[in-house]
Amino acid sequence: MAQVEATTERIIAANPEEAFDALADYSGTRAKLLPEHFSEYEVREGGDGEGTLVHWKLQATSKRVRDCLLEVAEPTDGQLVEKDRNSSMVTTWTVTPAGEGKSRVVVTTVWDGATGVGGFFERTFAPKGLARIYDAVLDKLADEVQK
After folding, report:
1. SS3 label, residue 119
2. pLDDT block averages, 10 residues each, the chain of length 147
3. Are 65 and 57 in contact (CB under 8 A)?
4. Which residues is 45 bridged to in the sheet?
5. Which phi-psi region, left, alpha or beta, contains residue 15 (left: φ > 0; alpha: ψ -120 to 50)?
6. Strand, helix or coil at 143?
């Protein structure tokens, strides 16, 4: 199995603490940031960063829906890591300073891809599709913290 990776990033006009706090607020702000690709959002434990357990369904395509149960960790300052208990998928959010009053937010998702022809198509198309979904999350994050 080859690992598949999707990455996108954005410079947001908000200080890194504000941007990170919005992303880490699973019991409040995070649900507002999710586009229509996400459904059945539910915080099952915690709700603020480290120790949170959150569930959602991610509809990446019209036929592909992932049932995600994510454990949240904060391995370093400015970083959230969401590990899916139901698959090999890991999403890492990294927020760093990007100048006066600005933040760089990078989101990277990796998972073990399929093999064969299906794996070829997954490696070719899934990263672009997932990057578009996370671009929408970053758009909503920017709208939320730049108010």
Report:
1. helix
2. 84 96 97 96 97 94 86 97 95 97 95 63 65 94 90
3. yes
4. 53
5. beta
6. helix
Report which DSSP code applies to 58. Answer: E
Cβ neighbours, 10 Å, residue 6 = 20
pTM flag (> 0.85): yes
Report how far residue 117's alpha carbon sits from residue 122's, in angstroms, rounded to the nearest whole number: 9
Contact yes or no for 19/105 (Cβ under 8 A): yes
Q: How many CB atoms lie within 10 A of CB 106?
A: 16
Q: How far apart are CA 3 and CA 108, in angstroms?
A: 12
List the one residue out of 6, 8, 10 whose CA is nearest residue 145: 10
Give me 36's structure tokens: 């229509």
Q: Count of CB atoms within 10 A of residue 131's CB?
A: 17
Phi, psi (5° rounding) for residue 74? -125, 80
- Both tokens of 70, joined, read 């994510």
